[in-house]
Design a protein that fits this description.
By secondary structure, the chain is an alpha/beta fold. The protein has helices spanning 9-12, 25-37, 52-64, 81-86, 103-110, 115-130, 157-171, 201-213, and strands at residues 42-46, 70-75, 93-96, 135-136, 142-151, 176-180, 219-221. Strands 1, 2, 3, 4, 5, 6 and 7 form a 7-stranded mixed β-sheet that branches. Helix 2 (25-37) crosses helix 3 (52-64). The longest helix has 16 residues, at 115-130. The two termini are 27 Å apart. 23% of the residues are buried.
């Protein structure tokens, strides 16, 4: 996807010289194991749709070393159903975004033809595999399940309502939903007529009312000042720790 408002624009839309780094499979596995040994229980693959073969190789290499972490697949949902099916029983936690139920929005904002059709089919398969319930370990960390995330965009409240209605009707109102208000305009869309501002209180409250009206009772919401907490700066060694 090529989201015009991507918060990670510093790395997703970099200009100038491309930095290249080659890393071997043993080194990747060593780095992952060092993190697991420090107490992490999960291995998360973020936006992995374009390197599925490498994901499988890494998983197999970890299994060969006796490692059984919780695998989290964090995706935009612009995935083939066949790909999602192929990970049945392998991926423990599906963490998909559902961005648009408006096909024109998908094209205009993310350059993704047929996004609603593709994403809804992929998420239906994830729901088929995991259902509505999530499992937690003794420390309260998720070990299995499905959590659907949706970023509410300013001026596009009807899209967000349709997404909640689709989840409620096509899946279940017992699904865990992360309803995010953290949108913040990046410099690339600062002058955009719709995307050049944050959400208003009235906009987010309207979505929360729809969330309640549809009977959702599992999930997470954010404070309206959350944009100030979710703005990475990739000029730092630790972009999310400022």
């Amino acid at each position: 996807m090529q989201c015009v408002y991507c918060q990670n624009f510093q790395i997703s839309r970099r200009e100038g010289e491309i930095e290249e780094e080659k890393i071997t499979l043993p080194e990747i596995v060593r780095q992952i194991e060092s993190i697991l040994d420090r107490g992490s229980h999960a291995v998360g693959f973020v936006s992995p749709s374009h390197f599925i073969p490498q994901v499988r190789v890494i998983m197999n290499a970890l299994a060969a070393r006796g490692r059984k972490p919780t695998y989290v697949f964090n995706t935009s949902s612009y995935d083939k159903v066949e790909t999602i099916k192929s990970f049945d029983g392998i991926v423990d936690v599906w963490l998909p975004d559902l961005k648009y139920l408006d096909e024109k929005m998908g094209r205009a904002y993310s350059d993704t033809p047929n996004y609603p059709e593709v994403a809804c089919a992929a998420i239906k398969e994830m729901f088929y595999q995991k259902g509505s319930s999530i499992r937690l370990d003794d420390n309260g960390c998720i070990t299995s399940g499905l959590i659907i995330r949706h970023l509410v965009l300013p001026g596009r409240i009807e899209n967000s309502k349709k997404i909640l209605q689709w989840i409620s009707t096509e899946l279940s109102s017992s699904v865990h939903v992360s309803l995010m208000s953290q949108y913040h305009p990046t410099p690339l869309v600062a002058s955009h007529p719709r995307l050049g501002r944050t959400l208003t209180t009235d906009e987010y409250d309207e979505i929360l009312e729809e969330f309640d009206r549809l009977g959702f009772y599992r999930g997470w919401i954010q404070e309206l000042d959350s944009p100030s907490n979710y703005r990475p700066d990739f000029t730092f060694d630790h972009p999310f720790e400022r």
